[in-house]
Structures are given as structure tokens and as C-alpha cells.
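Field log, afternoon session.

UNIT: design team B
ACTIVITY: writing a sequence onto a fixed backbone
BACKBONE:
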């Protein structure tokens, strides 16, 4: 899926810091896909969650140069989008807490931010 294919231009970008591994990226994406409300939206065809290469990298990135994109497929009110943004942020923090419990070392830091594909 290319940026903008079937989306409204409202996406949430989830990034992990340079300490993240490919395994971390995949595990976080699967965690997000299993979050109940996000799963409901995906099943209803209103949301897509996928990985993509980071678009702002210059040269060889430190760590994994991937990000997770949570993209609205159908139009949504600003309030609903803002609630989705909060929910994704909470899901990332829950994943970090879970990873801390099941693996050695600190989990990568994460950032969750809205991105307007329409510019």
C-alpha cells in the first residue's frame, strides 16, 4: 500500500528509538493489531496497521529504519481521531511494559504522532 492509497490522509505514526530491533517492530505491530478497539476498526475496514520504511532517514540509520503506520481508511471526526491517537499511545506504553516483563533490558522508547499525508 502506498501512502494515500485508500486513506483519508490522517495517519498515526509509531516509531521506536534506535535501540529497537526488527523483532521489536514486528511485536509492537502485532500488539497493536490485537488491541480490542483497534482490531474492531481493522475488521470493519476503517483502519489499517502496517509497517513501512521510515521516510525521513538520510544515510544508513542506526537501528531499524522502520515505523508503524495506523491509517484511517474512512472519514472520521477530529474527536474520533484524537481518541484513536490517545488509544494508540496507551497501547504502545502497554507493549513497552509487557516487553519489560518478558525480555531482558529496557524496551525501546516510542513516539506516537499524527501525520497529515495531505501536507
Amino acid at each position: 500500500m502506498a501512502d494515500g492509497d485508500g486513506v483519508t490522509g490522517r495517519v498515526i505514526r509509531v516509531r521506536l528509538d534506535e535501540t529497537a530491533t526488527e523483532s521489536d517492530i514486528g511485536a509492537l505491530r502485532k500488539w497493536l493489531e490485537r488491541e480490542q478497539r483497534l482490531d474492531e476498526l481493522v475488521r470493519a475496514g476503517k483502519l489499517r496497521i502496517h509497517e513501512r520504511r521510515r521516510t525521513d532517514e538520510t544515510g544508513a540509520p542506526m537501528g531499524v529504519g522502520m515505523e508503524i503506520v495506523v491509517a484511517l481508511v474512512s472519514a472520521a471526526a477530529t474527536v474520533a481521531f484524537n481518541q484513536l491517537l490517545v488509544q494508540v499511545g496507551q497501547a504502545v506504553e502497554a507493549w513497552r511494559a509487557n516487553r519489560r516483563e518478558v525480555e531482558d533490558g529496557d524496551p525501546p522508547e516510542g513516539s506516537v504522532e499524527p501525520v497529515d499525508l495531505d501536507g
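LOG NOTE: The two ends are 18 Å apart (CA to CA).
NEXT ACTIVITY: expression trials, pending approval
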